Amino acid sequence: MTATSQPLTRARPAVPPATLAQAVLWTIVVVNLLVLWTLFAMSDGGKNTILTIAKFFGMHVALIMMFQLLLISRLPWLDRRIGMDRLTVWHRWTGFTLLWFVVAHATFIVLGYATLDGDPPWRTFFALASVPDTLFGMSAATIIVVVAVASVRYARRKISYETWHAIHFLLYAALLLGLIHQFLEPATYQSTTWSTVYWWTLWALVLTALAMGRFVLPLYRNMYHQFRVAAVVPESDNVVSVHVTGRNMDKFPGHAGQFMIWRFLGHNRWWQANPFSLSAAPNGRTLRLTAKAVGKTSAGLRHVPVGTRVFAEGPYGAFTAMHRNSDATLLIAGGVGITPIRSLLEECGGNIVVLYRAATPADAVLWQELQALAQARGARLHLLTGRTGAGNPPNTPFEPPNLLHLVPDIVHRDVFVCGPPAMTNAVLQTLRALRVPKRQIHHEKFGFA
Q1: What is the DSSP string of 231-278?
Q2: CB atoms within 10 A of CB 274
Q3: In this predicted structure, what is the pLDDT of residue 253?
């Protein structure tokens, strides 16, 4: 799409896409909880009250694990309506919920059998570890505890993403061990033929969703499109754009504002991947990413040879025009956060205002393109420069009075915000102070968990 091409227009659904997706997701959770509780109420209890409680927690461990897998399955329908960042946050907190249910289940199991046999808990623990089906469950629980500890914020800051990811990958082993444990251990969901069919069908659906979203779909898209580098264009001393082409690019299902996880084969190791936004709306011929040199992988992009094969996962993200509620839009960008904003400007129609925050005019990446697009779209474009807080009066463009002065009708606009965390948080705080409706505020963290 060029600066003179026409923006896309879409009919607005009666129910906001995010609201619909969340309603579907939570309906699935509630329905399966009700089924689980019904099965538990109709089944025989454990050998004593403590073991009955352990059984209750154990059933919920499995259901929570299913929900956690669904959240990170990267199903396009969910991802484009809720966004990977929110789904990942829900996955994180679901993981800590899973941890406490696992601990409770294991604790009540040990206490229940210790009471039943009249032995101390430590002796019962080692006795249970000698039973194969229980050993599988203990091994799965141990892995879950290790991964949860590595995911605590303090620990997460002390290790690299690659190390954390390798530890997190152990959850697939925990999943396999947990499934074996469920298969060998008689439980409520195996009390009748119907409950057994229900339970394993549920597991089959969840595992199919995970396999499709995380493995099958990315492999299929890369085989179908066969991405490769078409051009590498330096935008400044520390910013570069990479143009990627391939086969059947007119069938690529991406939209402006989305991001992809990129691997340039031969440029870095397989596990060194980066999420970069599309800095131009997909045009049926090429995709473009624009990256700032903030790490070894992104800094080396300007040296990637033309013709390099690319393995790209995505597109991901809900930071798209699909979520607009009106024809009036405010696009706010800071630094290299201009990349998805620039692509949205290219795709959106209607009354548009763009605010671009940069330290100096020289730091305004893609500025000439923005000017051309703004002129073609009839959009108002403001470059906000200078150090925040400097001068008299202080330079604070995103304080409520200043933002309202720049965009007097801001409460009637959809607002898309992308930039450094400090800037994004300041803008969101101001939007709340100005009483911009929550449904009109759109922001997304582009990155890994």
Answers
A1: EEEE-SSSEEEEEEE-SSGGG----TT-EEEEEEBTTB-TT--EEEEB
A2: 21
A3: 94
CA distance 202 to 65: 12
Phi and psi angles of residue 397, each rounded to the nearest 5 degrees, phi first: -65, -20
Domain chopping of the chain, boundaries: 17-221, 226-316, 322-443
What six digits make up the tokens of 311?
């393995």
Question: If one looks up domain 322-443 in CATH, what number appears?
Answer: 3.40.50.80
Tell me phi and psi for residue 252, to 5 degrees: -70, 130
Closest to 199 measured CA to CA, from 190, 208, 210? 190
3-state secondary structure of 419: coil
Pairing mode, if any, of strands 414-418 and 328-334? parallel
Q: Are 175 and 65 in contact (CB under 8 A)?
A: yes
- C-alpha 257/C-alpha 347 separation (Å) is 9
What is d(CA 81, CA 120) in angstroms, rounded to the nearest whole number? 52
Say how far apart CA 227 and CA 221 lie, in whole Å: 9
DSSP 361-410: GGG-TTHHHHHHHHHHHT-EEEEE-S-TT-TTTT--TTSHHHHHHH-TTG
- Regarding the domain delimited by 226-316, which CATH topology (the fold level of the hierarchy) does it fall under? Elongation Factor Tu (Ef-tu); domain 3 (2.40.30)
- Contact call for residues 59 and 202 (beta carbons, < 8 A): no
**Rounded-to-integer distance, Cα 365 and Cα 368, Å:** 8
The ranges of the chain with pLDDT < 50 are 1-5, 448-449
pLDDT in tens, 268-277: 777 678 889 9
